[in-house]
Design brief:
The structure holds two protein chains of two kinds. Chain A has two domains: 1-167, Hotdog Thioesterase (Thiol Ester Dehydrase, Chain A), CATH 3.10.129; 172-294, Thiol Ester Dehydrase, Chain A (Roll). In chain A, 22% of the residues lie in helices and 34% in strands. Chain A is built from seven helices and twelve strands. In chain A, strand 6 (135-146) and strand 7 (149-161) form a beta hairpin. In chain A, helix 2 (54-64) runs antiparallel to helix 4 (194-202). The radius of gyration of chain A is 19 Å and the shape is globular. In chain A, 38% of the residues are buried. Chain B is α+β, with helices and mostly antiparallel strands. Chain B has a domain at 139-169. Chain B contains 14 helices and twelve strands. Chain B is globular and about 80 Å long. The N and C termini of chain B lie far apart (53 Å). Classes of the chains: A alpha+beta, B alpha+beta. At the A-B interface, helix 2 of A face helix 1 of B. Chain A: This is MaoC/PaaZ C-terminal domain-containing protein.
């Protein structure tokens, strides 16, 4: 990593030649003090000429249920962007604490699939710091570009709980009414070790996902599934019903998914839209609402 | 008096068109596709076919495919691949397995249903991986685990499991051998090759021709609409365009024993991973889809030989299937513009050709009046075959079928004359599958 001098607009660049080690970032975040109260730092995290590792992608595909094929799963660039996100969020002047931040929403827009052996540039910046009913939230925007063309864009919204803002506007998930008539769908058992299995293929060893013993000090009675794992399982299960190109995939994360759990997916398809709900098997707890548009 | 039931209407068999094919490049085992499963590869091959022939979201009459080396997780492989593909999820599918004959037999089954009017279109395919091969527990351990599973009380489960001994833990890896003889296919073929006096030089020459022909086919773009790149591979990576008889002559024999051993790694096919698909349809369906038939699937035949106690060579069944197919269609062995004889080993091809020229074999074994005779060797495997491309068992039939159909179309368009091709594929278990295409 090297801190490049500020650009004309005062933006600071964090350059990475390899993915930053998330375990180290988490370890220092655990002992770090409170987040700053200032504005968002104008920082751009950059990794140039990124190529996914075919074996790691195959491992990821197996864990999440994607086929092994010549293009990256829709959700995979997030795995590569996530360390850059945490690098920004662990900056001293970042106004939200990395540990304890909740991933509440994620929007992926794919212009076209990225080839397994294709090189792309990855940039991440933070924007849109805003109040949330139960604290403050911020968007981490990740972009994969090939020859100047953005082929994949991910907007990850993180919430840091704090002061209530009852009047804050919220992003409302779509109406789930169409799903009421959907009687069946895939049912999955998420075993206790799902967090560790996903951590191994994604590098995200956040202690809340690893084990009940490491999750408890952070306020969770059991370990909880990575949101991006549950979401990837849904995207993989929708598979060929979703186009590869020109698609927007939006997930609203709801209640944390405690491990182990049995979950159920229900989906409803329209000409240019698929609406899905991942809930507990008994349908009494909503874990994620997913909408694809193309 | 019994009431007369009306006779069912006689149905005319319909012509069956081969519309095209798609495969992924074949990869030497434990290389480029080491992480891909049969289902990944078959799905990729189907998706490439769907993209090329506008089948995305369409319901096809039936998908028939198989794999020779199958995991228990490959249950319903063809159907699961369809569900993961861009074809409409309402497309029916089923699995077959006939060793190396799987791909061509799948095409015969699809063609027959189309001919009978039971379906209007279909996809025949196959996939095989020796890299991602199923590994089973030893037979002894399997019995112990099943007994433990049957036990009701935990104490009984423990008792059953107490029978496990270290030697039980050695995994059982699939062997390329015949269950009834314990001999590998190559060692079987070595016996046959020696009986027929097939020389090392002739085998090496055939191998070199295979590499050169396939390399030339790639170079002139012949495979552009037959192959879709997969996992970073754009060409079969077993292909050695610069292969030479001199280089092959240096290799040591790997099958057979003694000074007469002639079969080397150079003139035998390597273990390979890959998948292939072929689109077949009725004329009406092809027309409605604005697709031009490459060739017509005329007829197919399967034969088997009794190889277990050595009365016949393991891979000799096609030598029996071909004359039966010729007789049924009123043809001679010389009535073909192209011959596609699967190169399991160079010696297999040479043995078949020699057998058809042999008076004693043709009269005594085949029951013919005279030998079938020689073929024009310049018409043999003109775009290369398994020695160059590799041979992912169930995927070979689809590779050959699509490639021959395209070659026939090009020749027919060039000459304005009807053309005909013969496919011959040998398989484990003493099986042979053969077929005729016309354009």
């Amino acid at each position: 990593m090297s801190g490049a001098p500020g650009s004309a607009e005062g933006r600071r660049e964090l350059r990475f030649d390899t993915a930053p080690d998330l375990r180290r970032i988490y370890a220092s975040a655990l002992v770090a003090g409170r987040a700053s109260s200032g504005p968002l730092p104008d920082v751009l995290a950059v990794r140039l000429e990124v190529r996914a590792d075919a074996d790691t992608v195959a491992d990821y595909a197996r864990v999440c249920g994607f086929p092994v094929r010549s293009t990256l799963p829709l959700t995979y660039p997030h795995v590569l962007a996530f360390p850059l996100q945490t690098a920004i969020m662990s900056q001293r002047e970042f106004p939200l604490a990395l540990m304890g931040s909740l991933h509440v929403e994620n929007v992926i827009t794919a212009t076209r699939p990225i080839g397994l052996d294709e090189a792309f540039d990855l940039t991440v910046h933070a924007e849109n710091l805003r109040p949330h009913r139960r604290g403050r939230q911020v968007d981490l925007v990740s972009e994969a570009t090939v020859a100047g063309e953005t082929v994949w864009r991910g907007v990850s919204t993180y919430l840091s709980r704090g002061e209530d803002h009852p009047d804050a506007t919220t992003s409302e998930p779509p109406d789930l009414q169409p799903l009421q008539a959907v009687a069946a769908g895939p049912t999955w058992r998420f075993a206790e070790d799902v967090g560790r299995r996903y951590a191994r293929v994604s590098g995200d060893w956040n202690p809340i996902h690893v084990h009940a013993l490491t999750a408890r000090p952070l306020g969770f009675p059991t370990s909880i599934a990575h949101g991006m794992y549950s979401y990837a399982r849904v995207v993989a299960a929708l598979g060929p019903r979703i186009p590869d190109a020109g698609v927007t995939s939006h997930v609203w994360f709801r209640k944390p998914l405690r491990l182990p759990s049995t979950v159920r997916l229900r989906s409803e398809f329209e000409a240019n839209r698929a609406l899905s709900l991942l809930s507990s098997a008994k349908a009494d707890v909503q874990h994620a609402i997913i909408e694809h548009r193309w | 008096m019994a009431r007369k039931t009306p006779a069912p209407p006689t149905r005319q068999a319909r012509r069956v068109a081969v519309l095209g094919g798609n495969r992924i490049p074949f990869a030497r085992a434990h290389g480029a596709y080491a992480r891909a499963s049969n289902q990944d590869m078959l799905t990729a091959a189907i998706d490439g076919l769907a993209a090329r022939y506008g089948l995305s979201g369409q319901q096809v009459g039936e998908v028939v495919a198989g794999a020779v080396l199958k995991h228990s997780r490959d249950f319903n492989l063809a159907r699961e691949s369809v569900l993961g593909s861009r074809l409409a999820p309402t497309t029916p599918a089923y699995d077959i397995q006939q060793a190396c004959g799987t791909g061509l037999e799948a095409a015969i089954l699809v063609a027959n249903k189309i001919a009978l009017g039971q379906i209007d279109s279909g996809i025949a395919g196959g996939a095989d991986t020796t890299s991602d091969a199923p590994i089973a527990v030893s037979e002894d351990l399997r019995k112990i685990l099943l007994a433990a599973n049957r036990a009701k009380k935990p104490v009984d489960k423990l008792k059953a499991l107490a029978a496990v001994r270290p030697q039980h833990l050695a995994p059982s890896i699939p062997q390329n051998g015949e269950p009834r003889t314990g001999m590998s296919m190559g060692d079987h073929m070595a016996v046959t090759a020696e009986q027929w006096g097939i020389t090392r030089e002739a085998q090496d020459e055939l191998a070199v021709a295979s590499h050169r022909n396939l390399a030339a086919a790639y170079d002139r773009g012949f495979l552009d609409d037959l192959v879709t790149p997969f996992l970073g591979l754009a060409r079969d990576n077993n292909l050695r365009p610069d292969s030479s008889v001199e280089a092959l002559a240096k290799l040591k024999p790997v099958f057979g024993t003694g000074p007469n051993a002639t079969m080397t790694a150079g003139n035998s096919t390597p273990l390979t991973d890959g998948a292939s698909t072929v689109l077949l349809a009725s004329e009406e369906w092809a027309k409605a889809q604005h697709l031009t038939p490459l060739a017509w699937f005329v007829d197919g035949e399967t034969a088997a030989v009794d190889y277990v106690h050595g009365e016949e060579g393991l891979l000799m069944a096609p030598a029996y299937a071909v004359p039966r197919l010729l007789a049924r269609n009123g043809l001679t062995l010389q009535d073909f513009d192209y011959y596609e004889i699967h190169e399991a080993f160079a010696s297999t091809v040479l043995t078949h050709l020699k057998a058809w020229e042999d008076e004693e074999f043709c009269t005594k074994r085949l029951g013919l009046d005279a030998p079938l005779g020689a073929i024009d060797r310049t018409k043999l495997n003109v775009n290369g075959s398994s020695l160059a491309a590799g041979h992912p068992f169930a995927a070979t039939g689809g590779r050959i079928l699509a490639s021959l159909a395209k070659q026939l179309r090009q020749k027919a368009d060039e000459t304005g004359q009807p053309v005909r091709g013969l496919i011959s594929i040998c398989a484990a278990g003493g099986l042979g599958v053969v077929a005729i295409l016309e354009a």
